[in-house]
Amino acid sequence: MTDLSEYRVRKEPFYQPQGHEVSLFAAAYRRRLPVMVKGPTGCGKSRFIEYMAWQLDRPLITVACNEDMSASDLVGRYLLDAGGTRWIDGPLTVAARLGAICYLDEVVEARQDTTVVIHSLTDHRRALPLDKKGELVRAHPDFQLVISYNPGYQSLMKDLKSSTKQRFAAFDFAYPPPELETEILVREAGVPAHVAAQLVCIGGVARKLKGHGLDEGISTRLLVYAGVLIQDGVTPQDACRMALVTPITDDADIRATLEHAIRATFV
Ligand SMILES: Nc1ncnc2c1ncn2[C@@H]1O[C@H](COP(=O)(O)OP(=O)(O)O)[C@@H](O)[C@H]1O
Ligand SMILES: [Mg+2]
Fold this sequence. Notes:
By secondary structure, this protein is an alpha/beta fold. It has 2 domains: 4-172, P-loop containing nucleotide triphosphate hydrolases (Rossmann fold); 178-265. It contains 11 helices and 9 strands. It has helices spanning 21-30, 45-56, 71-75, 91-98, 112-115, 162-165, 178-189, 193-208, 220-231, 236-245, 252-265, and strands at residues 35-38, 60-64, 76-81, 84-89, 101-105, 127-130, 135-138, 144-149, 169-172. Strands 2-5-8-1-9 form a 5-stranded parallel sheet, with helices on both faces. Strands 3-4 form a two-stranded antiparallel ribbon. The longest helix has 16 residues, at 193-208. The protein is elongated and about 65 Å long. The structure holds adenosine-5'-diphosphate (ADP) and magnesium ion.
């Protein structure tokens, strides 16, 4: 049997709340409601779930979803080895059996025929049929399902079915307001507050370009990268170019706008 201790969040993760999301998530967990966190990439969704797992003292099993993932990757499969065939529980089954929080990260990346396997776990049944094995796993009382997704990437081809969406309590995440984001950079990158504020300022410029040539602005994650590089002695200009400009766009005009903001900020 899988040992859940490796899934314990041992140390308190640093999480800067943006509102009442901590107490609201705890309320959802008390009733074991499935939770969906929505928001752009790198805005703190995964960190929040990690923090909540720590706070609720539940093991956390995270699955990064992708297109090639099949229902068996979640549920489990028979493996053939020297001893014959044996059943191996997938991560969703392990979490349901043993009472972990199962976090399906970027769930829309998975195909819809994969995503439907979560349905029976997210309604009154709270059970997972292992068809190939002929077993019905009743979810442990502590089990909770959490999914994240980025509505920005949503297309008709890649969206959750309405029948899936309607099984979750949801949280909208966004990039933190400047004061909080500055605080996050100080904590996460170790930069002084004034440098953090300068980076946040550049983030603000990029986020205003969303829809005007940029699909998404600069994430908090990238601002942390820039901060870490600066902290290690890379010049702010180089750090910003590497972490904030080059990754997000190849458009010459947008790069020029961002370069300009960087030069104006770090004089
Ligand atoms: N509210 C927050 N508190 C603490 N760190 C944060 C917060 N928001 C973003 N971060 C930082 O940004 C990084 C990316 O956040 P993450 O949770 O991985 O984003 P995603 O929304 O893509 O899951 C984290 O590793 C952390 O350094
Ligand atoms: Mg994430």
